[in-house]
Amino acid sequence: MLLILRRGRLFSISLSGKHAHVVDAINAYPDGATPKDVWVDEMLVVGRRAILVGFDRRLCANTVSRVRIGAGGRLAFEDSYQFRGVTRTSPYEIPPRLIYGKLVLYSQTGLDTNDPIASYPAMRRFGAKDFGAVASARDLYVAPRLLSYQVKYLHTLTMCDVALRTVRCHATGVLGGEGQVHMSKRAAYLWIADWYGPNAFVYRMPLDGDAPRAVRAIGSPVAFRADDASGSLDVVIEPQFGHAGWAPNLDFQAIGLLTIPASAFGDGSGEMAPKDYRTLATDGPAFAARLSGDRFLYADNLLGEHTVLHAVSLRDGKKSDLPVGFGVNTFEPIGGDVMAIGRNIVDEGSGQAYFESDTHLAAFRLDGTLAAGGHYLLPASNSVEHIEPGFFFDAASSVIGLPVGRHLDPNASYKFDGSATVTFLSYRDGALQVLGEVGSPGADLNSDNCHSACTDWYGDTRPIFVDGRVFALMGYELAELDPQTMRERTRLNFTPH
Questions:
Q1: What are phi and psi of 238, to 5 degrees?
Q2: Does the pLDDT value for residue 415 go beyond 50?
Q3: For residue range 66-76, what is the model confidence (pLDDT) as tens digits?
Q4: Which strand (E) or helix (H) includes residue 139?
Q5: Positive or negative CA dihedral for 462, 53, 416, 491?
Q6: Could you give the CA distance from residue 321 to residue 313 in angstroms, rounded to a whole number?
Q7: Helix spans in 34-88 (H)
Q8: Most confident of the ranges 392-406, 412-426, 473-487
C-alpha cells in the first residue's frame, strides 16, 4: 500500500497485482476547517495511522491530524489538533520526526516580551475553544549569566504520544537567541550563538522529557554529528566574527572540530576547554559542509570550474584534495562513498553571477584518500526539490533516482516547462551508468479542483523503491518500471476530478 499526500489530499494506492490502483482519497484537513488557511505538507506513518503535520495560517499555529488506515487501504479522518507556540512556518526548518513511536516537533518562536505566557506552547483539539498548556514555567530553561537582550526566542521541543485515544503532548523549552538544531534519536542539540560576542551556549535536550543541560563554547557551527551511545557531540566550527577563538593565531579561514562529551553538559556555567578544540583546516570558509563517516567533506567555493573538494579525516587529521569542476550544492552518502551534486555559477565579470542550466553529479571514493569516481551531466535541468537537490539511493540495488525538471530556455535556469523526469543511474565500483529515465509532460494544475496546500514545497516528483519494485511518482502520475531495464511497464493517473 502506498500513501501519497498531494495538494491538500491524501491518497491510498494499492500496489498488489500487476497494476497499481487508487483505493481511497480524502481531504488532509478536518471538516469545518477553512481549506485555504490550512497547509498540510508532512506525513508520517505509525502503525495503522497516518500523521499529517501542517500549518494554520489564520491562527499562526501548527496542526497535527490523524487518519486511520483501514482494511484494504480505506482512509478515515480521525481527529486534528492545533498547537500554539509550536510554529514551523518554513520547510527549511527542522521537519517533524517519529522517534520510538512518538511525534517530535521542534520550533523556534519569537518571544513576546509584553506577554511571554502567550509564547508558551499549548494545544487544543480542533473545534475546542480553549488551548491547554503542554509546558509550564518549570519546563522552560535559561542559561546562567544570559542577559535580557539575549533572550529573544523560545526554542521548543514538543513530544506527542500519537498512539493514545486522545493525543497527549509535553514540551520543553529553552530561552535564548537565534540558534541551529541537530536531531538525533535520543536528543536535540541546540547551538545558540551570542551575536554580540564570540561565545555560544550548546544545549542537549533529551527526547525522554528530562531537563536540558548546557555548556558554553565558541565558534559558528557548520556541521554536527551525535553519538547516541556515548551522548557526545562533534561539531565542525568556523570562526565567529572572523576570529578563531580556539586558535588565536588563525583568522576567518580556520575550520575546527569541537568534541563535547556527555559529561560536559551541565547547568550552562561551564565552558569547553582549549584541549577540546582541534583545527582541521586553514583554507575555509567551508561550503556544502558535511560529516560523512569519519571524514569532514567540504568545497572551497561555489564558482564551478575552480572548485576543489576536500576530505579531512577526523581520526588523524589527514587531508586530501580533488578538483570537482562544478559548484557543489550538497554531498550525499552513497554506500561508503559520497556523491557531489551541483551546478556551475558563472561570473561574467559584470558583478552579476548566475547558475548554469546543467546539473552535475560526481561520485568520489573515500577508500583511504579521496579519489574520483563517475561523473554524469544532466543538460538543461534543475532539481524539482525546492529545499535541496533531490537524491534517492537504493542500497539493495545500488540504483540512484534523481527527480529533475527541464528548462524552457537553456539560458534561463529559472524557467521550467512544468514537466518532470526521474533519471535512474547505477553506482558500482565507483562508476556511474545511466539506466534510463521516465517523464511526465506536467499536469494541468487547474484541473484537480485544489483548495488547500496548492504549492509543493518539496516538489512533486520522486523515485520509489519498494520490495524490489521501482516506481516514479510525477505529480498525479505513478509509473512502474522494470527494475532490470528501467523501461516503463504501467502508468496510473490519479488526478482527482
A1: -120, 165
A2: no
A3: 999 999 999 99
A4: none
A5: positive
A6: 12
A7: none
A8: 473-487
CA distances from 9 to 25, 43, 386, 450 (A): 7, 11, 20, 9
Closest CA to 83 of 157, 9, 189, 191: 157
Nearest to 421 by CA among 364, 473, 487: 473
pLDDT of residue 348: 56
pLDDT digits (tens, 9 = 90+) for 98-112: 988 899 999 888 877
Q: Where are the beta strands (DSSP E) in 198-336?
A: 199-206, 213-218, 220-227, 232-238, 255-260, 267-271, 277-281, 287-292, 295-299, 308-313, 319-323, 328-334
- Residue 43 CA to residue 69 CA, distance in Å, equals 13
Helix (H) or strand (E) holding 11: strand 9-14
Q: What is the CA radius of gyration of the chain?
A: 24
Find out whether 307 and 300 touch, Cβ atoms under 8 Å: yes
For the chain, the domains span 286-379, 381-497
Strand order from edge to edge, sheet including 232-238: 220-227, 232-238, 255-260, 277-281
Report the CATH number of the 286-379 domain: 2.40.10
Residue 149, phi then psi, degrees to nearest 5: -70, -15
The pLDDT of residue 193 is above 60: yes
Grid coordinates standing for 297?
567533506
Distance CA 30, CA 25 (A): 14
Q: Which residue has the higher pLDDT, 375 or 445?
A: 375
The owner of cell 509543493 is 456
List the one residue out of 413, 437, 409 whose CA is nearest residue 359: 413
Q: Residue 120: phi, psi to the nearest 5?
A: -65, 140
Taking the C-alpha atoms of residue 8 and residue 34, their distance in angstroms, rounded to an integer, is 12
CA atoms of 153 and 156, how far apart (whole Å): 9
Q: From CA 157, how far away is CA 212, in angstroms rounded?
A: 10
pLDDT at res. 411:
47
Contact 168, 185 (CB under 8 A): no
The backbone torsions φ and ψ at residue 134, rounded to the nearest 5 degrees and listed phi first, read -115, 5
Q: What pLDDT is recorded for position 382?
A: 67
> Residue 296: is it exposed, middle or buried by C-beta count within 10 angstroms (0-12/13-18/19+)?
buried
